[in-house]
Every structure is written in structure tokens, then in C-alpha cells.
Amino acid sequence: MRRRLNYVVLSLALILTIGSSAWAAALNVAVYADPDTFDPTRTVAASTVEIAFNIYEGLVKATPDGSVTGALAERWEISSDQETYTFYLRDAVFHDGTKVKASDVVNALNRARDPEISARWSDFALIESIEADESKVVIKLNQPNAAFLTTLAEINAAIYPEGAQGLASHPIGTGPYRLVEWLPNQYVKLERFAGHWSGELPFYEEVKFLIIPDQNSAVLNLRSGNVDLIPRMEPVVYHQVEHDPNIKVVAGPMNLVQILAINNQRPPFDDVRVRKALAMAINRDEIIYGAAWGYAQPLYSGLSPAMPTYYNDQLALVNPYDPERARELLREAGVENLRFTLTLPSDYPLHVQTGEIAAQQWKAIGIDVDIQLVEWGTWLERVYNQRDYDVSIIGLAGRLDPHAILVRYESTNSRNFFNFSSEEFDQLIGQGLSLQGSEREAVYKRAQEILANEAAGVFVMDPEQLAAMRVEIQGWQHYPIYVVDAARLYE
């Protein structure tokens, strides 16, 4: 299903050398959506994580291969019962010059697990207590959690000064870059942080994330030199840069699940037969070639093949493309003249184009669809937070552990905007945290099977990530999570 990209290899890039270090003034990065908030406890948007990865750090952080490494924690110990984690803090300072203290860690993680404050409090629900002395933090869990370290690498576990005010627009972290200016819907400007604990300086003094929702405008700016990097170029515009000798495209797995999200509690979608009918009317191949130009893998599961250990590859025939069977299911459910609203985030062309094709496919089995385009902020509030929708399309960004991805379908999870509910699924998700090896694999594969059998949503594709940039830029690496690691880039 993937097309082979033609890469252009040019001569060595000119490197400006100052003393023994190579530095450049600025890097301009085109992104499609504005952050929702820079308060790490409250953010739910991948567009925020993409930028905030450079500003904030947690006790640990993600690496390109999906593992975790120390960030503010120099080292850590895990008790034999897997329930006590002891972290030893390194000597580090925040962007405001104050020293990182263990009390800052306690405050940030207590906020992360507070359901009155945190957008993802349920990710931290197994924490029983957090204690600290001057440079040590001890976290006790109420049961083993195989995903705990990866949870601490998430943006919601980022550390900031205790008592910091206005984090939503003025974040204070310890990352290699600090925020100096944010003009909503225009740009986010970051500046290299000279006080980073690593003692290293990134190549670029300044990184500006330009908010350019329109794909064609982003590519036009890349070709004209106003933009240096588009980290997630849509496949539909690839042909515009394919033969440009000044631009290279680096392709890699995105670890993203594009889903036709169905509100499982809203009639008639509370009937599994109706949900299955929607699923069996979908021709994934047509969507992948029509919306993603072939740069994607079809999905039938709530996990991406980018997680091969846990991915269940036996689900393609659960709800296969079968328009006639889809019509029969609607008749069996007693549903006639079905009409619903498909709410789409206008900032994401891939999801809009997928929605347009899906609407045509549903029309072929007698379903009328009203497409409603909304801005990203409206989508987050209406669909994600209020769960006020019929059907929508979104990409669920990858995480470092399968639990963090699948737990969103747990009936009580704060991120379960699908309103999906299954007692067996909930039990499996709870078990998965305390298991290891093949037992854990089996649990998560069964959980994916339940999502498919119940048609919790329609899993469509995992698009390839196409990072387009000037040929001089080096160091780009794909992560299994939604980030731009600007500190790794150089010329």
C-alpha cells in the first residue's frame, strides 16, 4: 500500500562554523494547528505535544526507538514487587533560572492525577503516594503497572516550578528551548536555552513554529524558502516537491490510528448492528488512495502495526468491506433513512478528505451524511470534551505503550469520547498492567478483538509520516509519538 519515495541526494550542505560549534540563526517549521494550551496538565492536543516536547521535560523522556531514557531523573530504581519507583534527580534549572527541586516534581505529578485539573488524570490513577526529599522522589503505586515509565514520558507528566502561574500561555520547563512568544493562529517562537542540564546547545538559536493550516500554502512557503521544515506533509501535496532538488522528504511510520469515531451511546449508534453497518460500508483501499495517495497501511485494530509485538493482525475479516451485508444489518436493526452529522476538524486535510470519501461510501448503502467542518478548538470542546457528536474522524496519536493507547476505550476513562463500554474490555485493560511477556501480549490482542467485534469505531489507516525539509537539514528522526525534536536538527 506504500509508494516508494524517490530521494534526492545532493552534495554536502554548507555549514557555518563559529569557533568549534556550528550554529544557525533560525529554523522555521510549518505546523497545521495551534496548540490548545501549554499547561501540560490540561493539554489534550497532539499539536501542543509536537511543540512542547522542546520546552518541557519529565523525569524520563521518549527516544526515537520508543524506549525511555533519563531526563530530569539521572537514574531510578524499581522495587521487586514493581510498585515502588525511586527517582534520583539531576542538577537542573528551569527556564526562569530557578533550581529544579523534588517538591516541583511532587506538585506536577499531583496535578497530573487530580481529576479536577488534569485532562488525563486516569493515566495516573494507580499512583498511591508521592514523597520526596531534596533530590529524591519516591512514587508508590497501588498495583504493578508495566506502562508506568512510559506514562512518565508523556507531556502530562512534565515538570514545572511549583507555584508557576499562567502556564497555559507562558510555559516554564527545562527543555532545550524556551518559549519567547506565542501569537495564537500565527506562530510559536522558541529560543535556545543556554542553561540546559546537558551542557549542550542546539544548532538553531531560534525555532519558529508557523501555524499554516493550508497544505498548499505550507508547501509554497517551503519551496520559496520561508519555511525550512514541514514535519507532517500531507501526501496529497507530495507531487509538488517530489522533483524539487532543494527539498528532501523523509518517510517513516507515524504510529497513528485514524478512526471513524462513533458516539456509541447516541441512538441509533448504540446498536452494534448499526456500527457494524457503518464499518462494512467502508472501502479502506479507496480511502487510502483517494485521501493519502497510497502512503498508508490499512487498519482494522485500535493499534498501529508500528507496535508489532502487540498488534493484532487477524482482524481484517471481522468487519470486511461488504456493502450488501451493511444494508442487511441496517434492516435487521430496523433503521431506515439513516441521516447523521459527520463532524470534521478543518485543520486536518487528511481527515476531511477521508470524511468526504466515507460519506460517498455510506451514501451507496442509503445513508445520508451532513458534513460539518469545525475549527480545531471547536472540535476539541464539542467532540472530545463534551462528546456532543454523531460521527467524527480523527487521528489518535501514538504512545509508547499499548496500554496508553487502548485504555482510552475503557468505560470510565476521561479520554473515551467514543462512549464505548465493555465489561470484558475493562477487565482486560486492568489486567494488562500487571502482566509481562506473552501473557500481556495476549491480553491486548484480545482487547483489540473486542473493539473490532463491537465496532467501537472504524479503524481506517496508519498514514506514513512524510517530513519535507531543505536538503541541508540533517538529524531528522521519526518518533513513535507526535513530536518535533528540534534539538537534534543541524546543517
Please provide a brief summary of the model:
With 491 residues, the protein is an alpha+beta fold.
What does this structure look like?
Mean pLDDT is 93; it is low at 1-21. Helix content is 24%, strand content 23%. The strands form five sheets. Strands 13, 14, 15, 16, 17, 18, 19 and 20 form an eight-stranded mixed β-sheet that branches. It has three domains: 17-27 and 176-254 and 466-488, D-Maltodextrin-Binding Protein, domain 2, CATH 3.40.190; 56-157, Dipeptide-binding Protein, domain 1 (Alpha-Beta Complex); 257-464, Dipeptide-binding Protein, domain 3, CATH 3.10.105.10. The protein is globular and about 65 Å long. It has helices spanning 46-52, 102-112, 148-151, 215-224, 272-280, 284-291, 323-332, 349-363, 376-385, 402-406, 423-432, 437-453, and strands spanning 17-18, 21-22, 24-31, 60-62, 68-70, 73-78, 84-89, 127-132, 136-141, 177-183, 187-192, 204-211, 229-230, 247-253, 257-262, 296-298, 339-345, 368-374, 391-396, 457-470. With 491 residues, it is an alpha+beta fold.
